[in-house]
Amino acid sequence: MKVTLTEVAARAGVSEATVSRVLNAKAGVAEETRELVLAVVGELGYERPFKPEAPRKSAGLVGLVVPELENPIFPSFAQVIGTLLAQQRYTPVLCTQTPGGVSEDEYVEMLLEHNTAGIIFVSGMHADTHADPSRYRRLVDRGLPIVLINGFLPGLDVLSISVDEKSAMYLAVEHLASLGHTRIGMAIGPERYVPVIRKVAGFLEAAKSTLSLDLSDLVEHTTFTVEGGQVAASRLINRGRPRSSAGPTSWPSARSGRCAASG
Fold this sequence. Notes:
Keywords: DNA-binding, Transcription, Transcription regulation
Number of domains: 3
Largest sheet: 5 strands, parallel
Domain HTH lacI-type: 3-63
Organism: Acrocarpospora corrugata
Radius of gyration: 22 Å
Order of helices and strands: HHHEHEHEHEEHEHEHE
Region (Disordered): 238-263
CATH superfamily of the largest domain: Response regulator
CATH topology of the largest domain: Rossmann fold
Helix content: 40-55%
Protein name: HTH lacI-type domain-containing protein
Number of strands: 8
Number of helices: 9
CATH class of the largest domain: Alpha Beta
């Protein structure tokens, strides 16, 4: 027996109108209420009614280019962005990169061949300071809307979305300092990436401001892999066994954050 909207509303303790606003991503609903309704929807297995008699034409294809899906942050990006695009009648096309597989540039060419309406790049080549930015300028010059997530390109007039790396590092350092730690190490990805550059700058500034220490000797660059994180952590521990280690880049995450204390 199918679960109804009325049952969802009753279980969540809200009106049917509120449930409808949540399911249609409308404004005017508190975040706590939205999360409660979505939790109830998942718990009861509610399925929105499908009306094949009134099909609506897609507004176009939108490419979503992500590095890989092993890191849980990227499937989360894909799920949220894909849902929002679908709600606006766009058809999301997920383009996942893997080592030795299809490259970002190759995916772009495929999307252009299918007359894509736009492309969203998550932690793409735009975050690599060694990469050629002309690939994005070429897209802008042909009038194609693009969005850059995690990283940006100076002088390129496009929407760029990133977290506040400096504030994140201040929070991490201040938290560990409040626990009494002073020897705080940082395990982070290759130096050429924009989020890495910002995180390191924020980390060193926070250490200087909070602890009056120069911790540049405790910054360990490595690859964006689990193995890379393990190697970096071992090096930091062997470098005088710091009481704490802050890993602002989670492994195998390329651009997300977390902290870990040891010792």
